[in-house]
Structures are given as C-alpha cells and as structure tokens.
Queue: 3 jobs
Job 1
Amino acid sequence: MDHFIYNNGVLHAEDVSVKEIAAKVGTPFYLYSTATLQRHYTVFDEALDGLEHKIFYAMKANDNMAVLRVLAGMGAGMDVVSGGEYAKARAAGVAGDMIVFSGVGKTEAEMWQVLNGGIRQFNVESEPELRLLSKVASAQGKVAPITLRVNPDVDAKTHAKIATGRSENKFGIPMAKAREAYAEAASLPGLEVVGIDVHIGSQLTDLAPYRLAFSKVAELAEALRADGHDIRRLDLGGGLGIPYQRSNEAPPLPVEYGQVIRETVGHLGCEIEIEPGRLIAGNAGLLVSSVIYLKQGEGRNFLIIDAAMNDLIRPAMYEAHHDIIAVEEPEIGVEPAPVDIVGPICESGDTFSKSRLMPPLKSGDLVAFRSAGAYGAVMASEYNARPLIPEVLVQGDQFAVVRPRPTYEEMISRDTIPHWMES
Ligand code: LLP
C-alpha cells in the first residue's frame, strides 16, 4: 500500500497535489511519501514480531538524507556497502552499532573508517577479506565483530543482473567451504565471530528460494555451534520483491516472509537481522515527468517525456516495468491507446515502455512512474549534461525539496581545468 492516490481527479502524494508540486519544482523530479516509508518499515517490524530482530535498511535503494532521517527516526539501522554510505548513515544520526557493513570489495581505507567510527558487524565475503580485516583491526587495537556471508547456491528466480545466491555469482563463501573459513576466522586476531550472513538476490517474488537458503543457513548454524563458534546473529539479507505491475503481480507479503523465517531459523534462538531496501523505499516514490511532444511515427506513436534513462535507468538496464499513470485522472470512458514512452536522450535504449496503453496526453501533461522510490535517484547520472533531478519529500499536507536541482553553473564548476591550459 502507498499514499499516492487520486483526489478530485488529480494524483496526490498524501495530502499534496502532485500538480502543485510540479508547478513549484518543475519536472522531472522524484517524489517520496513519508507515511509510505514509515508504513513499510512498520510492516517488516510487525512481520518479525515475537522474534528478537533488527531491521537494517539497505540504503543503496535510496540514500537521500531526508529518507534516511525518516527511517532512522523509526528505529531502523542501516546496511551499508561503502565508506560513503557509512558516512551518510552516521550523518543521518544512525549509531555505529546500528550499522552493518556488507559488500564484496571492502577496502582497507573503508575498514579503518568504519572500525574507527564504530560498527555492529562486518559481513565478510571472502578469506582474503578476513585476513585484511584481522590485520586492520589488530593494528587499531580493536576487535571487529564479523559474520561470514555464505553463498547457498540457490536460484532466486529473479533477473540475472540482481541474483546473487548462485555459486557462479561473485558473492559470499560457498557453503562447502564455510566451516573451514569460520575456523580460520576464529584463529585470526582482531576478529570475533558473531553470526552468519546470507543474501540471495533482489526483487524475489517467490518464497521458496528463501525457505531453501534459510534452511541451509540453519543447518550450518548447528554445525558451526558444534565446532564451538558462538553463532548468535543471523543476517538474512533483503530482496523481498514489490508489485511493479499492479494489475497482475502479487508478490508475497512481509508477514509471509516473516513466517518462513520463523519456520526455518526460529528454533535457533538467534537474533534475526534483515536488510530490506526495495520493499521499504520502492513504492514510497514516484518519478514525475511532463510530456514534451506526442510524435506520430510510422505505425507507432511516441510519447516523448522530459525524464530519461539517466534519471531512471531500470527499464534500460533490466527491462524493468514501471506502471506509468497520468497525473490527471482519465475520465471514465476515455479509450487508452498504445504509445512508446521515451526520453530525449540520443539512444534507442532511452525507452521506458513500448506499446503502453495510455489515455490521450498532450504537451505539458504530467505523468508519474510508480515504484520509483528504490534504485531510481541513486542510480541516476548526468549523462547528456542533464542535471540530476530534484527529490521532494511529502509529509501530510507539507512538502520540501530534499535535493535541489543543480544549476548549469554548478555542473560546470565541478570540473577543473588543468594548470597548463590556464593562460
Ligand atoms: N543486502 C544486500 C547484501 C544487497 O546486496 C542488497 C541489494 C540488499 C540487501 C537489498 O535488496 P532489496 O531488498 O532492495 O532487494 N539496482 C537493482 C537492485 C540491486 C540490488 C543490489 N543488492 C534494481 O534496480 O533492481
């Protein structure tokens, strides 16, 4: 559920008209709903009710500082994958012991930064990373709490670019090598084993792969305990999918996912950690854009809008579907017609959708992409020297720009001219 609904024929974000925001901010822009972010956090929290648990929002999905503040205010911890994300999480007021550090290529500098600033745990992904972390922590006179991310070799049945749990993927340590890796971890100075980590992929729309992966983790936990390791936390990653196509998708609910967790690992008495990103932020955001032209081609019509693949790359990168709706509610009885919805960038890949049924639209009309709150703004670029688009947050009847659109001067002045070119 989200808080983007038609009210008097105009799409609203909570109690604010999207048209009104567009008139003030200019298109295109991202628009986030505080109530939806809060609701999604709460739904996860309730899904794990009765289990000792913590939620670490995977901030790679949307790391706007205002969004982080909303979630931190709900009690969320953060799952970070870089020194930059760690710095942003801390700046948003998240304590070090509410941050887990994931990622397959943590650098020595990042290890220093995070150990120095305080961290709940490193989710270590390889033996060389274990050795480097041991060295860095020992040099700092610190002990790094660690889990090892295991690769359960489970098919997450999602898009190949976002599946991570097969042995051919670069992530984690194979299950068969896990006991050996844990033994090495226990033997190294400066490390303390606290649990196991697993993450099998993103946009999962079936619970069976979770059940399989978590069952393998439960078995491993018992084996590791028998080996003498103190397995007290299980980080089960993120990945639960959202309905991108509302008319025909109904992915499992967080409460059903919670039930799988209970059934597979509930008996172990471990603290459960999860790292949802998309399900918290995805349907809490729209991308709002205006129609520039309706161009009649040969046999097809193109709706050319002012948002492009640099603003939302998911359709070009993963063939992803986003529902696109008119901000002015179409009148009953109006016949939709197929159009190709495209951006202004000089690439055919700058196509959001082909033959999409849309109501009649003309230059200046507003459209909104649903489910754009996750992996939208964070993956944007300034390709074609198109300024990063603004982000707006709504709360009730208020809205604020939480990232302004840079001016052309700001864009230009980010580059510097080498001294030999200065006269
Ligand atoms: N934990 C780890 C270790 C991850 O790698 C990810 C996502 C998550 C948690 C959060 O997964 P989520 O709950 O958001 O599915 N750019 C792609 C998605 C990439 C996901 C990468 N890892 C997209 O636009 O679909």
Job 2
Amino acid sequence: MPRSILLVSILFTLFSPFTTAQQKSTDPEGHQWWQHAVFYELYPRSFADSNNNGIGDLNGITSKLDYLKGLGVDAIWITPCFPSPQVDFGYDVSDYENIDPMYGTLGDFDQMMGGAKQRDMRIILDFVMNHSSDQHKWFLDSKSSKTAQYRDWYVWRDGKGANQPPNNWLSTFGHAAWTFDPTTGQWYYHFFYAEQPDLNWRNPAVEKAMFDVTRWWYDRGVSGFRLDAVDTLFEDPGLKNNPVLPGTNQYGDPNMDSKYNTKLPEVHGVLQRLRKVADEHDAVLIGETWTKNIAELKNYYGAHGSQELQMPMDLMFMTVDKLSPPEFRQQIATVDSAGGWPVFVISNHDKPRSYNRYGDGRHNDQIAKLMAGLYLTLRGTPIMYYGEEIGMENNDPTRKEDVKDPIGKIGWPKDKGRDGERTPMQWNESENAGFSQATPWLPVPPSYKTHNVEAESKDPNSILNFYKSVLTLRHKEPALLEGEYVALNQNDSNVLSYLRRYKNEAVLVVLNMSSSPQKVSFNLKPQGFGGRKATTLVSTGAPTGEVNLSELSLEPFGVYMAKVSK
Ligand code: GLC
C-alpha cells in the first residue's frame, strides 16, 4: 500500500467515529448505550394492527413509535416476528432471515427500523437459538434420512426399545421430550413442543449458521438480541436419566430435576463467542436466564474474565411474587453484588401480568405505580412489558375451547396457558380497544374502557402519567442513571427504601408496600448526607416540596422520591 494511503487509513481508523464498538456509544464515564436505555418488550401480534385482520403487525408498530418515544422508551425488543407456523406464536422459527407475511415484509421492517433510528431508538430482536420449527428446511432435510446433509443439526437417538424414548427427559411443555419419527426409526429431542426440535449446538456448522443469522440482522440495523431459552442449548451427550423427584407437575408428569438437559457448562463457550460477534456491532445480548442463585448469574455475565451476556435477565426478581420488602431487599442485594449490570423485569409474555400478581384487588392502580417506582429506579436497566404502563391486566380464558396457547390446552384447567398476558394493547375506549377494527386474535379485558392510552394520557393521576414522570426523571437524574444502590432502614418490613448515590447528590426512593399508612424517618449522615431536608421529585401522596426526612408520612402503597444533596 502506498505510504500516503496507509497514513490516511491509519488516521481514519484512529479518528473515525466508527473505530471500535466501544468508542461508538459510551458516555464520558464509560457507560454503554444499553446501560442508560429503557427497554420495552412488545408482542407484535398484540401491539397494533395496521391492516385490520385482528393480528398486530410491523406497520402497526411503526405507527406507534411516537407513543413509545413520548413514553421514554429507548430500545424496543420485538418477540419473534420471523416466518413461523405459529405453533408457539413465533418461537418456532421456520426461516431466521425473513419476516412472517402475517407481520409484513422486510421492507416494512426496514421502514420500522428507519423510523426508530430517526427517533434515536433502537430495535432488538428475539433470537430463538435452542430450536427451530419442525418446518424449517434444516429439519425437513434432517428427518428425511440418516445420512441427510442436516441430520446432525438436530439431536437424533435410538429408543431404548419398542415405543420407548432414549431416556426419561421431559418437555417443559408437558410429557416426553422425545418424538419418534417413523421415516428413520429414530427419536428426536425437543425441550419445548414436538414442533420445536432442538438444534445440535455440538455441531460447529450449527453454530456458524446461527451466528451468521445474527450478523445478517446486525447488517440490517438491529442493536442486539434477546436470547431465548439459553439455559437449554446443551444436553448431556451420554443421555443420563434425570433424577425423579416426588409428586407430579401440572401436566401430570413426574417432577424431575432437569440436571442433564439444562444449564450445561458448554453454553458459556457459545455465549462468549456470540458476544464477540455482538461486540463487532456495538450490540447488546440479553439472556432469558432462569438463574437460581448468584453463582449462576455471575457465570452468565462471564466468569474468569471472559465476556458473556451484558444483560442476563434477573428473573429471580420476578419470582418475588408478593409485596415483601425483605424479599425484594435480598433479591436486589444479590443482583447488585453479582459484578455485572443488573436487569430488572416484572412481567413478560410468559408470566401473568404484574398488575394481577401484585394487585390486592382494591388498590391495583396504586400498586402498579408502586412497582414502577421500584423497578424503574434501581441500579440497572429495566425492561418494561407492553401495557404495563397503563395497568393492563390478565385476561385468562374461561373455557378450554377458547385457549390459543398450547400449554393451556395441555395443562387445562391447572395451567390456563399464557393467552391472558398477551392480549391486545389498549389504545382507546373504542371497540377492541383501538387495536384493530377486526375481532382481535385474543379478547381485550373489560377494563380497557378505563385503562387505555388515550384516557390515561388525559388523567394527571393515571398510571401512564406516573410512568412518564418516573421515566423522565430516570433519563435526567445522574443518580438514577449511574448512582450506586444503598439499602436503607433494612429492618422495616413494610417500607422498602434506598438511596441511589452519585457523587455529591442522591435520589431517595421510599416505597410503602403495605395497605396501611406508614411513618418513616431517615438519617442519611452515614451515607454522607448530613442535612435533614430533601426536595420532592415524585410523590403519589402527601409529601411534596421541601420535606423533613426525620418524619415522612406515606399513604397506603405510597411512592415517594426526593433529591438529597450534600
Ligand atoms: C421462551 C419464550 C417462550 C417460548 C419458549 C420456547 O421461554 O419466552 O415464550 O415458548 O422460550 O421458545
């Protein structure tokens, strides 16, 4: 290369804004874009229906970008919108590099991406890594013969005898995790439905093809992935039987410790390599990680100096299913000390909505604000679930024949499935909550008349406006963005309080998790804040303006936030 060209290219490399992923989007303190972003999980079938066929679509999402921006969302995670027979509503992908016609086209995707970019928002996709659809061309080939090109891309084994699967492993969606295929006389493995055969991640060709999928979407502009079901990527190659536990589950199968088909150490190698690809694109990897303890969480961040997931979801936090300050305190402390950047989630498309899980039936709106006051102000990144900001509630089917989610069909009546938490977004009080002019694929609950975007936008005391004010604060208060988490009044079993401390200032968060009024007092001297005065930032009840921290009165389920400085 001539010297002058070499010099130009060195200079370009040194000073280009695109030099390395790290330089692109870190703030002066070294934070990455995803550490200050508010994420919003959106179920495309249920968000907005632009062509009025009862099913949401990408153009629907594009039409609501201004709403999301106005709410304070920085990154949208869209659950699978790829071609799929929809047995598991998109989590059974038959083509990883396209859009299901039901949701639109790649052109619509590009338009949505452009709209998001214009508004300085990012798009994250769902990467269903553990399995494909049984209609994917890889599986169709794999099942065609024992010597097929893609045979080893899935997990095939001989049975133990006539009609006997290779071992006792169970599908998490009920019954055996093996299905017999008469064409080749072998069984294939599926941790989820039989229509979701597990990919064989021990085959390097699978890894290469799947990593290339992420590259393909990065080139189209996506900023990262939520990695579906990563706990289940690998299985014990010796197929040891899982230990059987006492009792039966909701499907009538024996309880089992899934020791040999979940959380195998090999998953970490894959994630570390996938992270390298992500880093080349300034992208974030969010894990659907069902960690049971801090050691598991640490491993997902990357043990022994390795880099793995930037954001393994702390789903343990979501398993605190009651308003219990001691339990939340313990859970927050665990995640906060895990050495990575915490991620907080209170609802998703697999779990009944937080409005119902925490609500007491009388103060649900107030409790929805209380929960927002919690997970939006902790140190870490919150991932909202669509509709949480307006207090959407679960609308579970009441008759088996109405159930759409196969889990509900297999598990009825003990398990009614996940339809209830996937109902259409409630935009206004017109028919079908303004989601569609056609009958929606799932019915909206009657509460849409009061709990909808239009009505709540006009009501200063609505859940929606509460979310907006907390999210506004979150974007501008350095203490909420970057401050450390300091637990306060740790023996209080009714009120959860903490400080987010940053340099000479801090934000105090006080959450009354009880149904009775409470009085609390704070001495922040040990935290370096000698004065007793604080300035209210957000309050759902009485304390406003300048307050005295030696006696604060809180209404039932009251939320109070104040700024304190040195
Ligand atoms: C994850 C998804 C869930 C899906 C399953 C199988 O747990 O969140 O909705 O059914 O993986 O892909």
Job 3
Amino acid sequence: MDKILISACLIGLRTRYDGKIINKLCTDNFQKRCLIPVCPEQLGGLSTPREPADILFLDGSKRAVSRNSKIDLTENFLKGARETLKICKKLNINKAILKSKSPSCGEEGFTFDLLKKNNIRCIIKS
Ligand code: SF4
C-alpha cells in the first residue's frame, strides 16, 4: 500500500500552535493509501499550544522566530524537519501532503524545504 506523509493537523489531530482542531482534508480519497501523520514542530520539541512563529530572513539566513517573545526557534524547526525526513526514509515514503502557510510545512517552511531537497514530492493543501 502507498504510504503518504501528511501534516497531522490536516486530518484533525490537535497539533496546531493554537491547539485548535481543523479537519481540512477529506480522507475518503485516501482509503487505499496509508497516511502517516506527522507534526514537525512537535517533533522539534515544541509544545501544543505554543506561540505562533514566523519566518524571518536575518543576515541572509532563514530563521524561525516566535511572534511575540521573539525567541529564535530555528533549531527546533530544523530538528523537526530532520526528524520528518528520517521518518520518510525509514518508511520509504516519497510523497507528502503538507499544510500551507506554516513556517514548517508551508511553501517557505523548513520541513517543506528539506523534503523537497531530498526528492520527496510535496503537495501543499490550504
Ligand atoms: Fe504541525 Fe505542520 Fe500542522 Fe504546523 S502545519 S501543526 S507544524 S503538522
């Protein structure tokens, strides 16, 4: 059976920064696929709920910074991306469905970047 990595929040798991549950994706279309839910920010050691973070470009390098307290969380985001990639490699996954507008999973996110660099096909869902 095909395995697809998926942002955990997209299928209704409580992983979002604000602790809210969203259920964006109808999983009926994936009955013959094995969805592997992952939250890179939790894998990077961040709690739920947590302060939202933004991507900033500082001195030419991409950083993840908490929105209000301005704490640099880049190491957490990088760790989450690496752990997510590790799961893909261990389970031989080459496709991912990722949540848009997230500093991890979204189009500019750390996990999206790393998966793309490792030839994992990433589809962004809003
Ligand atoms: Fe976790 Fe990604 Fe969903 Fe954010 S978008 S809650 S990092 S799975």
